[in-house]
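Section 3.1 - Work completed
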Amino acid sequence: MSLISQNIFHKNRVNKTKREDVDLPSPLEGNEHVEDGQEMVPDIIRTKKRKKERKEEEKQLEVEEEREMKKLENFLFGSLYAPIEFGKVGDEDVQTEAEKDSTLFFTDRSANSVLSVYEEDAEFAKESSDEEDGTKQRKPVWVDEEEEKTNINISKVNRLRKLRKAEDESLISGSDYVARLRAQHAKLNPGTEWAQRDSRSKAYSSDDDESSDEENGVVVAPGHKDVESVDDILRTNEDLVVKNGTKLLPGLLEYSKLVDANAEDPSNGPINSVQFHRNAQLLLTAGLDRRVRFFQIDGKRNTKIQSIFLEDCPIRKASFLPDGSQVIIAGRRKFFYSFDLVKARVDKIGPLIGREEKSLETFEVSPDSSTIAFVGNEGYILLVSSKTKELIGTLKMNGTVRSLAFSDDGRQLLSSGGDGHIYHWDLRTRTCFHKGTDEGCINGTALCASPSGALFAAGSSSGIVNVYNREQFLGGKRKPMKTIENLTTKVDFMKFSSDAQILAISSSMKKNSLKLIHIPSYTVFSNWPPSNRTLHYPRCLDFSPGGGFMTVGNAAGKVLLYKLHHYQHA
C-alpha cells in the first residue's frame, strides 16, 4: 500500500471520527489521487445530510404524536386540561380547535380551578338578573298562562285588603296577585341572611364593588358594606322613614290583643295615666290607688320592675320627662312630686311661691324637657322649670283653662277652655300671638298636637273633635280640616301616634267610648273598638315610640295592651 493510499485511509478514518469536519487533500498527493479524493467527499456530505434528515423526521413525528395526544385529551376531558403555552409556533391552531371541540362535551366543574368558579358565577348572575318588587328571584321553571287572563278583586275579601297599594284599588291581575302574596309572605317570614342565595355572589363581588364605589366617589361605612347597597338607596326618592314604602290604609286596623300590661300587679283603682318611656320597653301606670308602677313590656310576661306609693296624693296624672330622666306626678293637691329614675328618689315640691292654687292635677311637659305647664285658677297657666322646680312665669287667658298642648319643639303652647277659643302662646316672649275660635265649640275640654306640630285636634264637652292644619289656622282659616262626631259625650283624652297616622279620642263617661281615626283620610277604623272585648270606661291611652304597641288604661284598674301589626318596631 502506497503512502498516498495510506493517507487517504487515514483521512477517511478521521472523517468517521469527526463527523462534522471535512479534511482537504494533502498537497503531496498527485493529480490522480486528488481526483479520487474529490469524488469521495460528496459521498460523505450526502451521508451526513441523510442523517440530519432522518433526525428531523424523527423530531417531526414526535411533535405530531404530542399534538395527537393533546387532541385526544381535549376530546376526552375538555379544554380545562389543555394548558396554554406561549412561544411555540402552531399551538394557537391546536388551542382553537380544542376550544371548538370542547363545547360538545361535559365540563368537569369539580376541579378546583379559577375558570370553573367564574363560569358558575356568570351563570348564577344571569339567573338572578330578574327582579320582582325590588327583590332578586330566580326565573320560574313554569308559568301559568291563565294568571294573566284572571282578575281578582282584593277589596271584597277582608283578608286580602292588606294587599292593596292604594285605597281605591280593587281589581288586579293574577300575576300581580301572586307577586303580592309572595311579598306579604316574605314580609311576615323574613329569612336569615346567611341562607340567601346572593350571599355568595356578594362575597365574590365585594372587591369589584369597592373599586367601583371609589371611582364614583361613594364611600360605604365598614359595618354596612354587606348590609345594603348605596346605589339601591340613591335610586329612589321615596320616604325612607316609612318601612317598605307602605302607608297605613283606612278601613280595617290589623291588631291583636296581648297580655295586660299590669297583669302582674293590677291597680285597685281607676287608671289615670299610662305612658311609654322613650326606650319603648318601660311603661308607667298610675291611678287613684296612689301607686306608680313600672313594667317591662314584651307582650308576653310584662314583668313588673318597681312600684312607688304616695300616701297623701291620689294620682291624677303622671308623665315622663321627654329625656327620660324624671317622672312628674300630680293630683288634686297644692303640691306635686318628682321621681328621679337615676337616683330612685322622690321629691315633694310646692306649694308654688306666689300662687294659691288648690289643684295642680292637669299639666303638660314640653318636648325639650325644660318647662312644665300647669293649669291654674282663673285662667292662669303656670310655667315651672323642670330643673329647679320653681315658678318662672305665668300666662293669662280670658276664660278658664281646661287643656294644654306644646308645639314647635316646646317654643309654643296651645291652650283652650271655657270661652271656646284656642290660644297660641310664644314662650320666649310669653305673649299670645294668635287667638282663634274653635268652630262649634262652647267649652273646650281637650287639646292635642301631632309630633311634627303640623296638625292639632281640639275636643269639646259635646263630643265633637275638630282637626286643624296649624299653619292654615294661624293664617286665618277657621274652618277645620275635618270634624269628627263619633263621640257623644265629653272628650277627655286625645293622642296622636308617633307618625301621626292614627288619632285616638276617648271619653270616660261612656263604656267602650274610644275611637281610632285614620289620618289623613279622617275616617274611623270600623273594627275598633273590639266587639267581643270590652274596654270598660277608657281613661287614658298611649302609643309606643315605634308605634308597635298601644296601651289603654280604664276605670277597672286594668291596662290593656295591643299589638299594631302595621308597625315593625315597638
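Second construct:
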Amino acid sequence: MSFFAIQKNTPCCVSSRDHLHKNRKYVIVALTQFRCSFVDGEMAANGNGLDKSFSTSLTCLPKFTSADVVKSVEINSSTKGNKLWIMSSWKNVYPLSNYQVALMAGHLFKVSSLATAVFATSGFYLYNRQMNLNDLSVIRFGRAATTTVLISFDYITAFKHVEYDTEEYWALKSKVHLRSAERLRDLCCANRGTFIKVGQHLGALDYLLPEEYTSTLKVLHSQAPQSSMEEIQQVIREDLGKELSELFVSFEVKPQGTASLAQVHKAVLHDGRTVAIKVQHPKVQGQSSRDMVIMEVMLKAVHWLFPNFSFMWLVEEAKKNLPLELDFLNEGHNAEKVANMLAHFYFLKVPLIYWDLSTKRILTMEFVDGGHINDRNYMKKHGINVNEISENLGKMYSEMIFVHGFVHCDPHPGNLLVRKCPRSKKTEIALLDHGLYQVLQPDFRLNYCQLWQALIKGDMSEVERYSLRLGAGDLYALFACVVTSRSWTAVNAGISSVPVTHSEDVEIQNNVAQYLPQISELLNRVPRQMLLLLKTNDLLRGIETTLQTRASSSYFINMSRCCLRAIARHNRSKDRSWRRHIQITLAESLDLWRLTMCAGEVTPAADADHLIKKSVKWLCQAISGGSSSVEARP
C-alpha cells in the first residue's frame, strides 16, 4: 500500500517519499497502486480502487466519510512512477500522525493480546517445571517484539509536533536515537547469545548507523552477560567427561573475558602449563537457529513500517557465519592456519591449541596475557610504542586481505592484545578469537586490490572501474566513501594525501541518515564477501582512531606493498613462461623499491636486500629451467 498526503486547499504533486511537515494539516489517501484517480470518492476508469480496509477506517472517524476524502484528476495518464496531481476539496481534515498512530495501535494491540494470552496460559506450567523463562522462544520473541514496537512507536510519534529540519527537530531525533539504541542494547543483554553477536556487528556499522547507536552498542564487546560456574562445569563434564579437579590443578572462577557465544577462564594443567579455556555458553547452540528466525521476523516488520530500513543482509550473513563460529574445532584450525600463514611476522602471537582438551564447545589454548590494543595507558606503562603497534596491525591485516585472502573478521579490542614478549622483550600483538574468517575469492581479491590502489592514488576512472566490478553499479561514489570511511572530497583528492579531520568525520556522520536508503541498497548489491570486510575495516579504524594513528602514511605504504605483491603473484600464476616470470618479478621489485624510496623511510636496505635475493632466485631458477613449473611466492 502507498500513502499520499494532501494538504488542505493546496494543489500539489506528492509521493510516498515526500517529507511532510508535522505542524500542518493533512489527510491520507491510500491507494493499492501508485496510479489511481478518484472523482468524488468514486473509482475512475483507470483506477484500481480505494483500499477497502482503509476506506472503512476513514468512515469510522467522526464527521469524515470517504466521499469527503479527495477530488483528484490525473493530468497525464501515461505518467510513470508514483506522482499524482491533486486538488483537495473537503471540509474535515485530520492530522497525519493521528491516523498512523491509530493504524499502528490496532495491529500492535492484536499482537500484544496474543502474546499476553500465551504467557498467561504457560505460567503455571513453567512455575511447576522450574524452567528458566529465558530459555523459551516465546519469551525471547516477546522481548524482541516489545522492543521493536516501542522503538517503532517512538519514531512514529515523537516528531508530530516538531517542524522538520529545525534545530529542535535534530535535537529530538538524537534523543530518540539514544533511547532506541539503549532499548536495543538491553534486548541484546537480556536475550544474550546470538542477539549480542548481532548487536556487536551493528555497533561496528559506523558508516551506516547514527553515532548514538554505534557508541551504545559498542559496550556489548566488553559487557556481555556471563554463564554461571555451574553451567561452565556442566559443559566441561558433558564434553570432556571429567570433573574440573581431574583436568586442572586450578581453575579461576572469574572469567578473563566474556563474549556473546562463550567465556574464557584461566586454568593450570597438572603438568604446570597455564592455559585459557574457552567454554561456550550452554544454551547458545539450541537457541541460535530460533533466534535467527525471531530477528528475521522483526526486521521484516520494521522494513514494512519503514521501507527505507533494509537490513536483511545482516540476517543472511549471521545465518551463514554463526554455525562456523559455534564450532570451536573450526576456530582451532583457523588459528593454526593463520599462525603458519603469517609466521614471518615476528610481532604476531597466536596461542597454541591443545587438541586433547578441545571439542566443538570447548577450546583449550595457550594462555597469553596483555592489554587491549586500544588501551593507551597500558602501552605507556609498559613502554610500548603506539605507532609501532598501529603500523604492525596494518601490515598484518593488509597481508591477510590482499595477499592471502584469508581474513580474521572480528578485530575488536578484546580480540587484540599487546604485550612485551617475556623472553625477547619485543613488542607483540596477540590475535585471539579465530571463529570468524572470510575467504576471499581470487577475482574479488584482485579487484579489491586494484580498487585500493586507485583510492590511494585518487584515480577516479579506476575507482569507478573496479567499483563496478565489485557490484556497486551507479553507486560507485558512495561505495568508495563507505569502503574508506572518507568524504567524497577526500576520495577525489586521493585518500593518502588528505589527512582525516574531525569536521570530515562529522560531515560523514551527518550524511548517514540522508543516504541511508542508498547505503542499504548498496549493501544488498555487493558480494557477501564485502560485508565482513567492511565490518573489519570499521573495527580497525576504530582502533586507529583511539590510538590517534588513523590514515597514517605507513598504513597506506604497507597496503600498497601488499597490493603490488598480490597483483604480481596473480600475474605470475597466469603465465607459464619463465621469461615473463622474471619480467614480472623484476617489475614488482622495482615498484616496491620506488614505493620505499618515495616514502622516505630510513631503512630501505632490508627491503632492497629482500627484493634482490628474490630476483636472483628467479634468475637462477630460469637458468636451471625450474621456473617454468614453480609458482612465485612473494
